[in-house]
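Annex B. Sample input.
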Amino acid sequence: MNKKLLLLAPVLLAVGGGVYWWRQKQEAPRDTSQLTLYGNIDIREVDLAFDASGHVADIQVQEGDRVQPGQILARLRPNKLEAALAVTQATVEAQEQALAKLKAGNRPQEIRQTRAQTDALAAKARMAQITYRRLQKMAQQKLAAPEEIDQARAAAEAAEAEAHAAEETYALAVAGPRGEDIAQAEAALAGRRAEWMLARERLADATLLAPAPGIVRDRILEPGDMASPQTPVLTLALNDPLWVRTYVPESELGRVRPGMAAEIHTDSFPDKIYRGWVGVLSPTAEFTPKNVETPDLRTRLVYQARIFVCNPQDELRLGMPATVVIPLDAPDSRAKPPPHCAE
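Annex B, continued. Sample output.
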């Protein structure tokens, strides 16, 4: 019996030591000088499409190409759009000339011509009156038939009316066009110019430009494909800003503020430390995602956070696992305006 106890003694001591070590490990105080979080590199992506429909003429970038704002990425065939622009430009020029003609009024030669026609008709009316009066005197002497007198009176009245109409025409020629006609022509010109601007904008939409600096991730269409506003041509990854999508446990939420400095580590570059800062803290809680590794229980509520990170050597990629360390006892760990990578 004593011999068995002697054999079990080392085993009992080992088990007791293990239990004691485990309890000490469990009861060890947590490091409160920093907060360690885990997440993945995240960026924004943009699906670029033409704001027009047509066949793709050419695409000037490949997957992996870096682009700058305003850089030409792709073009549509412009033939129809250029023709529509030429038509609208011609209508604008025609309407401009019509408006200029109205504002200039009648030329001096036209006014003099109208004056001459008016004088001629006035002379004709006077001659008709003379003929009519002569026939009236002859009728008193029984030398003219009543029918002749009636015809002369009608001719005199018609000539008088023609002369009066000519005077009105001459007055209108001197006065020039009405203000309402000029206003109508100006409104028509504004409409033609709007059509021309719309055609010019449609032609500009046939060129796809980079909206921001980034990297071409996918080339979806090829030359000859039919493009439309609902069909993306390229997918652009915007590498600025770059952030780590992570989650802050509810128990640590009161210790983290936007603007706090952070250090980011990756498995791909274990010896490098990337400078960053706390950017956004979600106002709503959620359950811990299963793909996030955390020493706390996964059933606890967490708050999504964006830790912006500087990537001067372009070493960080979308989805890359990252570890975020936020110093909590540093003098500058208080919340402050977010810094920038250029600083």
